[in-house]
């Protein structure tokens, strides 16, 4: 019998061992297609009978690429506290911010009291809802931040921008979410990484509203960012239009799939560096969770919830076809495992739905 090429051999081995999981995925996808068709049919009939049309606004989600194994995040004890900001929940299916965050320029922002180093800022934002240091993607956002800083008498603010060279394309936003190449407002002569690489926002003087790079251990104000999300009264952990429910019980991925299903949820998928950071903030313990993913190789994975593959963070490939994620504070690397292995469960569902 002829020997199969390595890739085909591994695929054949995967199909033999995990045909049940694949069957579950196929059935799930078919149910989604049938459900969508039925929903469209019902909706069209309803529209023909009703004279009042209710329109709803949807929220677009952002995507990023992947972490690199050489990236690091410094763990620094918390030294700052929250600024007291009153907030009210928006009605169902409207934009909402995590408690303590304020919707500014289309983003949820929270100013922490006091100042800190860049590492302080990064860690303290993570402690507040898994947020990150703020980013600026266009002129409107830049103006909104300057206006916010002026009204609140804030000193220079750390941004989530790290520069690795003297060109703008080498300046990358946290968390691996693109470069500043599409928009920047650097002051003349910057970025300058000869002495420093951490980006900050100037709030006063003639250069107010412009950016510079400086020493990462200098003291600046800390402004944290989260994406707005759909309000869901039944969702305690709500991030970027999805609800997360934690269960500290160990299951295989197939068992976890069945466990999450009655909640209209699926085993968690990780679709960006920001989502990875948020999931870690749910736990803040040295533990692993099972991922709802089938792994063929480092660059070829399939999410059980049908998510597109826009983010891969495999740190340790042990030639398994399932994966777990490290949820302690850090890079959130994934490790491939055999699908018979077990880990804690995190169920994920769209926010705002009735189950």
Question: What's a quick, concise take on this entry?
Answer:
By secondary structure, the chain is an alpha+beta fold. It has helices at 6-17, 19-49, 118-127, 139-151, 253-260, 273-283; strands at 95-96, 102-104, 107-116, 132-133, 157-163, 171-173, 198-201, 211-214, 220-226, 229-230, 237-239, 242-251, 266-267, 288-290, 293-297, 300-303, 314-316, 322-326, 334-337, 343-350. The chain folds into three domains: 6-43; 95-226, Mannose-Binding Protein A, Chain A; 236-350, Mannose-Binding Protein A, subunit A (Mannose-Binding Protein A, Chain A, Roll).
Structure explained in plain terms:
By secondary structure, this protein is an alpha+beta fold. The chain has three domains: 6-43; 95-226, Roll (Mannose-Binding Protein A, Chain A), CATH 3.10.100.10; 236-350, Mannose-Binding Protein A, subunit A (Mannose-Binding Protein A, Chain A, Roll), CATH 3.10.100.10. The protein has six helices and 20 strands. The strands form six sheets. Strands 2-3-9-4 form a four-stranded antiparallel β-sheet. It has a four-stranded antiparallel β-sheet with strand order 6-5-7-8, with helices on one face. The longest helix is centred in the N-terminal third of the chain and has 31 residues, at 19-49. 37% of the residues are buried.
**Poorly predicted ranges:** 35-93
As laid out across the biggest beta sheet, the strand order is 2-3-9-4
- How many independent structural domains? 3
Overall pLDDT metric: 82
Supply Rg. Answer: 22 Å
Annotated CATH architecture of the largest domain: Roll
What's the number of helices?
A: 6
Counting DSSP E segments of at least 2 residues, the number of strands comes to 20
Helix content: 10-25%
Text of the CATH class of the largest domain? Alpha Beta
- Specify the overall morphology: globular
> What is the CATH topology descriptor of the largest domain?
Mannose-Binding Protein A, Chain A
Query: What order do the SSEs take from the amino end to the carboxyl end, as H and E?
Result: HHEEEHEHEEEEEEEEHEHEEEEEEE
Tell me the span between the first and last alpha carbons: 51 Å
**Structural class, please?**
alpha+beta
CATH H-level superfamily of the largest domain: Mannose-Binding Protein A, subunit A
What does the largest sheet look like? 4 strands, antiparallel
Strand content: 25-35%
